[in-house]
Amino acid sequence: MEKLRFVLVLLTLCLSTSLVKGGDPFLFFEWKVTYGTISTLGVPQQVILINGQFPGPIINGTSNNNIVVNVFNQLDEPFLFTWNGVQQRKNSWQEGTLGTNCPIPPGSNFTYQFQVKDQIGSFYYYPTTALHRAAGGYGGISVHSRALIPIPFDVNPADEFFVLVSDWYTKSHSQLRKLLDSGRSAGRPNGVIINGKSGKGDNKDEPMFTMTPGKTYRYRFCNVGMKDSINVRIQGHIMKLVEIEGSHTVQNMYDSLDVHLGQCMSVLVTADKDPKDYFLVASTRFTKEPHTATATIRYGNGKGAPASLELPKAPIGWAWSLNQFRSFRWNLTASAARPNPQGSYHYGQINITRTIKLVNTAGSVDGKLRYAINGVSHVNPETPIKLAEYYSVADKVFKYDIIKDDYEAPTAKTEEKITLAPNVVNGTYRNFVEIIFENHEKSVQSFHLAGYSFFAVAIEPGKWTAEKRKNYNLLDAVSRNTIQVYPNSWAAIMTTIDNAGLWNLRSNSLERQYLGQQLYFSVLSPKRDLKDEYNMPDNDILCGIIKDMPLPKPYSV
């Protein structure tokens, strides 16, 4: 019966004029989401499996592929996936956050369909409901260039490996949720895992990756963790950076790389050392007591010679990390998803239409811990914001623009009054916006903007002023979807909000995101035109006050 229903849903989706994307290929997946027990840090605990796997299956596609994923929720709680870094052009219906979608009820299924339109790169998916990400349920997404687009590598990689690094708690997601719901912090994670495992660097683990001498390999790193930045390095090998979150980069060489929360990047590594074992090392950054995990890389014709027990050390301090950020540059001559070079888009010559300053803070409401942006701690309404807009009942669910574009954080002597409410910013379609992130706290922050890539033009210590624009990189800043903000520092990004829909800007810290440090940009098509945005899918799940309302008039061409 489930198979028949799946086929019927696919037929409906593929015949829908609002969702068919020309002659681009379709990739079909069927995922069963269940609980399982795994000892990730040596302690048996409940994790979320996808088709029995942790991490979940890798979605391996090509630019412009249509991805169809039928998700069967076999958990005891409602569930959603988001596709971190996939821009969902004109299609925020597939975004999979609680602001855009009703969750999949237990025992039910939902079919996502989206296109990786004009994108290449390294991304990942994860659950957005009920702190489920703390139990796993995540996996990698690799999007390759089409055959007609030249790849700017000296040599084609013999193979590629996804490396999902994460800090990890030994408490279950439900235990962590109880802590946060009671007004307390989840505390520090208990360790680090690499692709769901935590090697101890003692040569007792089976190899996770195998390389043939003389060959070059692509490693795609993503920090899918919950709290910490993670530094990655490979014993005895240099890494050539080639891509960050969908953009080809200038190919600089690095001994190690800081991968902040939510970030992805890929490197080329050549197997040009003695044929033996080597450790891939991942360790937390900016923590008093760093956690470290290893994975074994084995040369294919090696004689099983063990890796050296002396692990390469991580750098110290965030000044090193800031300098590394400044060394990342957009490859202006390389083509990404389209034939034209990346550098043909001159973002530095576009006039800024709007400047929005976002200040992250921590505080309390009624004695319970909350996190805020510009004094507002986001609360998800029972009716998803996107559905409320589509059914023209937004005024019954939330208010637009309850935060100011220019916010001044309270002084140390003044306690910030935090407001609990849905945090929705009205964005004007096709405006070119500058967003400033200001971090007055003592820890590194990381933010993701869904629906877009943006140019990360600057990160500097201190407070931002308009005079700081003279220090922006207006030529070859990397186009990406996450940005870190160091303690008592600011970061500036620029983007054109030309993707109609509802888009989440969120802290990549799971605790902060769960306790309100996020908002939504509502970017509405003024014409309600199918050229700008797709209609609500026929299979969309309905909930809240719109559940029994008649369908609105659909968008038309």
From TrEMBL:
Cleaved signal peptide residues: 1-22
Domain (Plastocyanin-like) ranges: 33-146, 160-301, 396-526
Spans annotated as Disordered: 190-209
SUPFAM superfamilies, per the entry: Cupredoxins (SSF49503)
GO molecular function, one term: copper ion binding
Sorted UniProt keywords: Glycoprotein, Signal
Pfam families referenced in this protein's UniProt entry, alphabetically: Cu-oxidase (PF00394), Cu-oxidase_2 (PF07731), Cu-oxidase_3 (PF07732)
Gene3D superfamilies assigned to the protein according to its UniProt record, in alphabetical order: Cupredoxins - blue copper proteins
Family classification: Belongs to the multicopper oxidase family.
Listed name of the protein: L-ascorbate oxidase homolog
